[in-house]
Amino acid sequence: MERGKLYQQIDRRAERMIENGLVDEVRELLKRYPPSCPPFKALGYKEIASHVRGEIDLPTALELIQRHSRQFAKRQLSWFRQEKDIRWFAPESIEAISAFISQCIAK
After folding, report:
1. What b/e sequence results for 71-84 when a residue is b if at least 16 CB atoms lie within 10 Å of its CB, and e otherwise?
2. From the CA atom positions of the chain, what is the Rg in Å?
3. 14-34 burial string, b = 16+ CB within 10 Å, else e?
4. The three-state (H, E, C) secondary structure of 37-68, written as one string
5. What is the distance between the alpha carbons of residues 64 and 39, in angstroms, rounded to a whole number?
6. pTM
7. How far is it between the farthest Cα atoms of the chain?
8. Cα separations (Å) of 56 from 49, 83, 105?
9. pLDDT for 70-102, tens place per residue?
């Protein structure tokens, strides 16, 4: 996928996470578990936990989630490019993906 389009999708996904209740989810989890728990270091949770604790405002938390997610995606792409046996497909190429899976299963 073209990088600009990928980054737009990452940004929109972060927005949907917040729209779908990520702040309330993290707030409730922080009532039950200490902030030192490993899940609070995950993308999205880390930034929203900072917001819930009053360290940053929500727009800043969203911006950080988006930036950190884009950086993570870039690292993933760099790692995957080193793998020589990977077949890349456009996400909308359902028929080609299905045919490749069927071919792999038949082997």
Report:
1. eebeeeeeeeeeee
2. 18
3. beebbeeebbeebeebbeeee
4. CHHHHCCCHHHHHHHHCCCCCHHHHHHHHHHH
5. 17
6. 0.82
7. 55
8. 9, 39, 49
9. 999 999 989 988 988 888 898 889 999 999 999
How far is the first Cα of the chain from the last one, in angstroms, to the nearest whole number?
A: 28
Query: Can you read off the two tokens belonging to residue 63?
Result: 């911006």
Question: Are residues 42 and 22 in contact, defined by beta-carbon separation less than 8 angstroms?
Answer: no
Tokens of 17: 């996470």
Q: Output DSSP code: residue 101.
A: H
Do 93 and 4 contact (CB within 8 A), yes or no? Answer: no
Instruction: Give residue 70's identity as a one-letter amino acid code.
Output: R
Structure tokens at 4: 């600009």
Say if CB 40 and CB 46 are below 8 A apart.
yes
Dihedral sign computed on CA atoms, order 77, 80, 84, 86: negative
**Domains along the sequence of the chain with CATH:** 3-106 (1.10.287.890)
